[in-house]
Design brief:
Shape of chain A: globular
Helix content of chain B: 25-40%
Mean pLDDT of chain A: 75
Number of helices of chain A: 39
Distance between the termini of chain B: 44 Å
Strand order of the largest sheet of chain B: 2-11-4-9
Low-confidence stretches of chain A: 1-41, 340-347, 453-466, 509-554, 799-818, 1096-1102
Largest sheet of chain B: 4 strands, antiparallel
Structural class of chain B: alpha+beta
Number of helices of chain B: 11
Order of helices and strands of chain B: HEHEHEEHHHEEHEEHHHEEEH
Keywords (chain B): Cell membrane, Cytoplasmic vesicle, Disulfide bond, Glycoprotein, Golgi apparatus, Lipid transport, Membrane, Transmembrane, Transmembrane helix, Transport
Main location (chain B): membrane
Structural class of chain A: alpha+beta
Number of strands of chain A: 34
Helix content of chain A: 40-55%
Protein name (chain B): Cell cycle control protein
Oligomer: heterodimer
Radius of gyration of chain A: 37 Å
Radius of gyration of chain B: 34 Å
Family (chain B): Belongs to the CDC50/LEM3 family.
Number of domains of chain A: 5
Largest sheet of chain A: 9 strands, mixed
Strand content of chain B: 15-25%
Organism (chain B): Sinocyclocheilus anshuiensis
Shape of chain B: extended
Chain lengths: 1102, 369
């Protein structure tokens, strides 16, 4: 039925275009863009409907220049796969090096091996990578195909109805219809919905992971549009929250629209039977595709170090070849050979030239010095490491049914080297599941003790119960009294504000039966006791209602944007004020006496971070007077109060108390009796601001500030944000592991400090430096304070134990070092001062001495600035962990970014390298997996260098006994397969499986983590020791056989093959010594290799 | 990449939907709790303690020292005699021969060296010639041969491999055997005489067969022309190597030891690994009776001096050696074993001492496992 109406509607819209075809074709699209570029001064795109042009050829289509909706994310095509892939691979230096050497081998004067054989290793490496890339690309191709062939409905003019087509057939300018629960195929400008209010809901979970519904509106006034339309909008960009444009009618009238009319590709339509619109962006130009930049490539610390060590190897190789070349120039007395070989036509090669040639021959001979399989092996090992991390059952979250996600593929070992952790507070340290704890109405404080008690015991179902608010008895009576007598009053206003001043959506989904019988019993008990106390009849009835609603079948379901709003609306519901319906123009509230109040919503001033408050302007159904309810941060509301009585003072006192207890505070205010005319005038200004193209935000702000003044304070609420499970333990362990923990939060200092205390970030005996903007007025003062503190610090560290009052000791962590444990608390404005150029050194110096730093009231940009500052100034490995969109900057700035998938959507997770669900998982991720990955990879890399140097040096030593002629005493094949087959599997298994210390030990002794922090697994010295060790071992492996066979009748290969075997045994044995734990698989692989090797060398020996 | 993450998401969405509807049939993403995936595979974690390391040292010492002694004694008992006949000294009988040398002189230069053996050689005696400072392992030298030619391939006989340059063709005829190795083949003749105490010279019979590896003689080296006994005809189209006095088909009169399968030639073609080397020349077979193979007494070595070494300051030697289970005389291995064994033993003692004296101090701080 709705489909029919949609069809009729569209027909109404599009039929006239049939007759108007001539006029439309005459309209030159360039004319549009010309006129637009004048008005917008921005590059724009003009989209006209495709319908009139359906019969035209492809190149005459007006929208032909815009991309189609078919996507292609695979990099290669079938025919160009091999060359393209090879081209990609040659971006890696090592590959160029080895191919260069293989080619060099074809030059006759310098060749060392049979050139064809020398090509094998590099070909194998390239082929392996090609196969891997090809497989990945094929997978991408398959998913693309699947998406491109998803069915959708496109309007067809001939049939005059929507035809089922594929996603790939969608073009810009097409009219597309999306049914409920279908995925939107392209970015569509919403022109019609089945909803009478022209509203469409979409779920953006595919885009940002947020499951809350977003409301989209039909372009205003479109339904009356009967002539052809052309849509003018911005060029494609990746901003998901910004979209501007207008629909222009032939009579040059323009209707503006914004992001709230755009349906985004990849989202799902919900709660709306069908929606239709014109495609403005398709395929790769859609906002979701532009937003997806694929996995980020970060280079880990070990890899950076390794690259310099590869360079060292090159230098070493260079010297070895130089020695070889000089040896040739020097000319050992080989005249017979010289006579024999170079006498052709009497042309002796001059010895310098011979040396020059020899240099290159030696490079070819000793090329194995640079481990060709190192990079491939590392990639392989990291892949398996990531597999193991994601498979860890300890990091699995039952409630969310999610594992740890590894989004960055190549920085696993960085997890083992973290020195500084920057953490967000809300949602990361805390649950971000808000519980309504206290409220203060008209200066009277009501503490909801029972709500606090619920949090005391941790039940597995606890998370689902934060919606249950147990009303305070005293307050309940007060409300009932006012309800009964006068029907108005501050108490009622307060709860009305709670119920309607929000952006919560109501959906009347039938919920599952409440399985939490224990809690119901408890609330029953409470209610029964309450009933006996209750005096008024209404009190009892209202309580019954509260009680029945959670288990009742007519349960309303709230979809709130923030957990705070959810907590508040549930609190209001507990007192009987439940919002039952919200449409764009009306909001209906059910009062405790079951009466329904239907407010007309005149305007909503949405929340923004600069105003820090939101307001709703409604018309009261009975009195018809215009009322504005506002809620906001205490400072944002308090300063705009109209009359200052004792109420605000008392409330402020309560608010301070809430903050001390770590509660999040909100103030509620009301502005009554806005005059009708006044409101009209304001509304007109507001509308103008809304449709403005330039400076829209500023003008909106102005209008909002204008009306949001002269409030009457109603009260304040305190919402508790509980700490996550085992946060203090995790912080303790991380700190014992030598990590500095910083908390960066947008909250106010009091709340932040309280959370910091409760999660053991700060100890009560710690010295505590607190700087805030009030005490620090200007930069010079700030500078003075910093210097003072630093001076004191230096004195105290110079004379330990001199000033006990000054310092708090924490022997548990710092042990005999007696470092003072200082906690620094700094707020946003001061932080920006401290981070100015002249103070930054002192600030960093001070931070180095602090055990914990707490930054309050910082902006997202400051968060990332702090991370960058510490990372650059102190040259440390940083980790940032956060859950919200405001942490994205910080997560991207840090070496390792960790997203907590929590309540605030998935933006942080999308930006992160690793995503976890609980803060406590950080402990295992860093201490166990980080340590393992680091030590495994470090050992493996070192071993790779070692084995190649040890092997190649055999050849080098031999040069001293073959007249520097680059003879290889080992068979070519053995030598070439050394890296590929004989010594590849054991170190890879080593890198995957070895376990230095068991996970339980690592968790119980976090101090073991310090090894990775100080890079003790892989230092420059470790590298050189390994190289020296390799030199020593190769000397032994060479000279024992040498002295054994010297002067005997041994042949070249009879001499070299045992040497090769001995050397391989030594190399494998060395690995055996390095291996800390023998897993059967590991030993099997090394055994197997040795066996193959031995049998092969025996064969060749014959 | 977009697409793949996209689809992953879709899966998620789909899953959550089905979880809501399905109830029981919830497919969780919980990782399998298997030993492999949880990295709990049974593993043996050896921890080095004094209790395991010290015995290891002693065992290595106790095994290596006897082996070393055994090797050393065996090597010591192997009789070996070596005589240098290069003739660089004025006093040397071969001085004249070494000075007046040309590749193409037709009159062979002979010289005789006298020596005496203090002890008799009991078993089979291997007679070697030794060369010093001869880099038979030089890369270009090693490559300068054509294995398929040596294997009797007719085509390679006519068209030798390019590797043989500049000893590939001579006067437009292919050289057989081609290459620098063959060209520089050792061509001194050594004869051994026993001088009775009464002054009579008896020539000692030298066996020239059985000195090459079986695989070389029967697999790698073959005369061209199949079983054609007339080697002269087979090699008619070829030239002899530049430095050779005789063509390859005149190396020996015995058809089983002529041409490419001449054992002296095969031995030479197996290039030595090191610049100082010896190559097996002849075998002196033990007689059937009880007399020693080479009784003690005076001997003379008659050398037909053809091979020049003065140009590269080389030395030529004749070596007589007996053979034991460990091969030729070589004291090094024995010494090496004894040294390593002793070092281990000594270290074991030192560590035992240290352990005994200081070991009990920090038992309490063992790593918990």
């Amino acid at each position: 039925c709705s489909a029919l109406t949609a069809y009729l509607h569209l027909r109404q819209v599009f039929v006239p275009t049939e007759s108007g075809q001539g006029s439309l074709t005459g309209v030159d699209s360039t004319l549009f863009s010309l006129s637009l570029s004048l008005s917008l001064s921005l590059p724009v795109r003009t989209v006209v409907s495709n319908l009139p042009f359906e019969d035209l050829k492809k190149r005459e289509q007006p929208n032909r220049r815009y991309e189609g909706n078919a996507i292609k994310t695979n990099k290669y095509r079938l025919w160009s796969f091999i060359p393209m892939n090879l081209f990609e691979q040659f971006h890696r230096m090592a590959n160029i090096y080895f191919v260069g050497l293989a080619i060099l081998n074809f030059v006759p004067v310098v060749n060392a091996f049979q050139p064809e054989v020398a090509l094998i290793p590099i070909c194998v490496i390239l082929a392996l990578t090609t196969v891997k890339d090809g497989w990945e690309d094929f997978r991408r191709y398959q998913t693309d195909q699947q998406l491109n062939n998803t069915p959708c409905f496109i309007f067809n003019r001939k049939q005059m109805c929507f035809m089922e087509r594929r996603w790939k057939d969608v073009r810009v300018g097409d009219f597309v219809r999306v049914l409920s629960n279908e995925i939107i195929p392209a970015d569509i400008l919403l022109l019609h919905t089945s909803d009478p209010d022209g509203v469409c809901h979409m779920e953006t979970a595919n885009l940002d992971g947020e499951t809350s519904l977003k409301q989209r509106k039909v372009v205003p006034g479109f339904s009356t549009l009967v002539r052809a339309l052309s849509v003018v909008c911005e060029n494609p960009n990746n901003n998901l929250n910004l979209f501007k444009g207008y629909v222009e009618r032939p009579d040059k009238r323009r209707t503006g629209f914004g992001i709230d009319s755009l349906l985004l590709r990849g989202c799902t339509v919900r709660n709306t039977d069908d929606a239709a619109g014109i495609v403005v962006y398709a395929g790769h130009e859609t906002k979701s595709m532009l937003n997806n930049s694929g996995p980020r490539y970060k280079r880990s610390k070990i890899e950076r170090k390794m690259n310099t060590d590869v360079l060292f190897c090159v230098v070493l190789l260079f010297f070895m070849c130089l020695i070889g070349a000089l040896g040739t120039v020097q000319g050992t007395s080989l005249s017979i050979i010289q006579d024999a070989l170079h006498a052709d036509n009497g042309n002796y090669i001059p010895s310098v030239l011979a040396g020059f040639y020899m240099f290159f021959t030696m490079i070819i001979l000793l090329q194995v010095m640079i481990p060709v399989s190192l990079y491939v092996s590392i990639e392989l090992v990291k892949m398996v490491q990531i597999f193991f991390i994601t498979q860890d059952v300890e990091l699995y979250d039952e409630e969310l049914d999610s594992r740890v996600q590894c989004r960055a593929l190549n920085i696993t070992e960085d997890l083992g080297q973290i020195q500084y952790i920057f953490s967000d507070k809300t949602g990361t340290l805390t649950e971000n599941k808000m519980v309504f704890r206290r409220c203060s109405i008209m200066g009277t404080e009501y503490c909801h003790e029972e709500n606090g008690a619920v949090g005391e015991f941790v039940s597995p179902y606890f998370l689902k119960q934060e919606t249950v608010v147990v009303p305070d008895r005293k307050l309940m009576l007060e409300v009932d009294r006012q309800m009964a007598s006068i029907q108005t009053g501050p108490y009622l206003d307060f709860f009305l504000a709670l119920a309607i001043c929000n952006t919560v959506l109501v959906s009347s989904v039938k919920t599952l039966a409440d399985p939490f019988s224990t809690d119901e019993d408890e609330s029953d008990g409470f209610h029964s006791s309450n009933v006996s106390d209750a005096t008024g009849q209404k009190g009892i009835s209202s309580e019954r209602k509260v009680k029945s609603s959670p288990s009742g079948s007519e349960e309303v379901c709230y979809e709130a944007h923030s957990p705070d709003e959810a907590a508040l609306i549930h609190a209001a519901k507990a007192y009987g004020f439940s919002m039952v319906e919200r449409t764009p123009h009306y909001v209906t509230v059910k009062l405790p006496n079951e009466a329904l109040l239907k407010f007309e919503v005149l305007d909503i001033l949405t929340f923004d971070s600069t105003r820090r408050r939101m307001s709703i302007i409604v018309r009261h159904p009975h009195t018809k007077e215009i009322t504005m309810y506002t809620k906001g941060a205490d400072s944002a509301v308090m300063e705009r109060l109209g009359n200052v009585f004792s109420v605000p003072v008392k409330t402020q006192k309560d608010l301070d108390m809430y903050a001390r207890n770590g509660l999040r505070t909100l103030c509620f205010a009301k502005k009554v009796e806005v005059l009708e005319q006044e409101f009209r005038a304001w509304s007109a200004v507001r509308q103008e601001a809304l449709s403005a193209m330039d400076e829209k935000e500023e003008r909106l702000m102005e209008t909002a500030n204008f009306i949001e003044s002269n409030f009457n304070l109603l009260g304040a609420t305190g919402i508790e944000d509980r700490l996550q499970e085992s946060v203090p333990e995790t912080i303790l362990a991380l700190r014992r592991a030598g990590m500095q923990l910083w908390v960066l939060t947008g909250d106010k200092p009091e709340t932040a400090i309280n959370i910091a205390y409760s999660c053991k970030l700060l100890e009560h005996e710690d010295l505590f430096l607190y700087t805030n903007a009030v005490s620090v007025i200007c930069q010079s003062v700030c500078k003075m304070r910093l210097e003072d503190t630093l001076g004191e610090l230096r004195r105290s560290t110079l004379a330990p134990g001199a000033d006990h009052q000054f310092r708090g000791y924490n022997s548990a962590f710092t042990g005999p070092l007696m470092e003072p444990s200082i906690g620094l608390v700094i707020d946003g404005p001061t932080l920006s001062m401290a981070m100015s150029d002249e103070l930054v050194e002192q600030f960093v110096e001070l931070c180095k001495h602090c055990r914990a730093v707490l930054c309050c009231r910082v902006t997202p940009l400051q968060k990332s600035a702090v991370v960058k500052l510490i990372r650059q100034k102190l040259r440390v490995m940083t980790l940032a962990v956060g859950d919200g969109a405001n942490d994205v900057n910080m997560i991207q700035a840090a070496d390792v970014g960790i997203g907590v998938s929590g309540q605030e959507g998935m933006q942080a997770v999308m930006a992160s390298d690793f995503a976890i669900t609980r803060f406590k998982h950080l402990q295992r991720l860093l201490l166990v997996h980080g340590h393992w990955c680091y030590s495994r990879l470090a050992n493996m890399v070192i071993y790779f260098f070692y084995k190649n140097v040890a092997y190649v040096n055999l050849l080098f030593w031999y040069q001293f006994f073959c007249g520097f002629s680059a003879t290889a005493m080992i068979d070519y094949w053995l030598m070439i397969f050394f890296n590929l087959f004989f010594t590849s599997a054991p170190p890879i298994m080593f890198g995957i499986m070895d376990k230095e210390v068991s996970d339980s030990t690592l968790l119980s002794l976090p101090e073991l983590y310090k090894r990775g922090q100080h890079s003790e697994g892989y230092r420059r010295s470790t590298f050189w020791i390994a190289i020296l060790d390799a030199f020593y071992q190769s000397l032994v492996c060479f000279f024992i056989p040498y002295w054994t066979y010297n002067g005997s009748d041994i042949g070249i290969f009879a001499f070299g093959t045992p040497m090769n075997t001995v050397s391989l045994f030594t190399i494998i044995l060395h690995l055996a010594i390095e291996i800390k734990s023998w897993v059967s698989l590991l030993s099997a692989s090394s055994l197997h290799k040795t066996m193959t090797k031995t049998s092969l060398s025996l064969l060749i020996n014959i | 990449m977009m697409a793949s993450s996209y689809s992953a998401k879709e899966e998620d969405g789909h899953h959550s939907g089905s979880a809501g509807l399905g109830g029981d049939a919830i497919r969780t993403r919980k990782p399998d709790n298997t030993a492999f995936k949880q990295q709990r595979l049974p593993a043996w974690q050896p921890i080095l303690t004094a209790g395991t390391v010290l015995p290891a040292f002693f065992i290595i010492g106790l095994i290596f020292i006897p082996i070393g002694i055994g090797l050393y004694v065996t090597s010591k008992n192997i009789k070996e005699f070596e005589i240098d006949y290069t003739g660089t000294d004025m006093s040397s009988p071969c001085f004249n021969c070494s000075q007046s040398f040309s590749w193409n002189s037709t009159t062979p230069c002979r010289c005789v060296l006298f020596f005496s053996l203090d002890q008799p050689f009991e078993s089979n005696v291997f007679m070697y010639y030794g060369l010093s400072n001869f880099y038979q392992n030089h890369r270009r030298y090693v490559k300068s041969r054509d294995d398929s030619q040596l294997n009797g391939d007719e085509r390679s006989l006519k068209e030798p491999s390019k590797e043989c340059e500049p000893y590939r063709t001579n006067e437009n005829k292919p050289i057989a055997p081609c290459g620098a190795i063959a060209n520089s083949m050792f061509n001194d003749t050594l004869d051994l005489f026993y001088i009775d105490p009464n002054g009579t010279k008896t020539q000692i019979p030298l066996m020239k067969k059985g000195i090459a590896w079986w695989t070389d003689k029967h697999v790698k080296f073959r005369n061209p022309g199949g079983s054609n006994p007339n080697l002269t005809a087979v090699f008619i189209e070829t030239a002899k190597p530049v430095n050779w006095r005789k063509p390859v088909y005149e190396l020996d009169t015995d058809p089983e030891n002529n041409g490419f399968i001449n054992e002296d030639f095969i031995v030479w073609m197996r290039t030595a690994a090191l610049p100082t080397f010896r190559k097996l020349y002849r075998i002196i077979q033990k007689k059937n009776d009880m007399t020693p193979t080479l009784p003690r007494g005076n001997y003379s070595l008659e050398v037909t001096y053809n091979y020049p070494v003065r140009s590269f300051e080389g030395r030529k030697r004749m070596i007589l050696s007996a053979i034991s289970w460990m091969g030729g005389k070589n004291p090094f291995l024995g010494i090496a074993y004894i040294t390593v064994g002793s070092i281990c033993f000594f270290l074991g003692v030192v560590l035992l001492f240290i352990h005994h004296k200081y070991g009990n101090r920090n038992n309490s701080s063992d790593i918990p496992n």
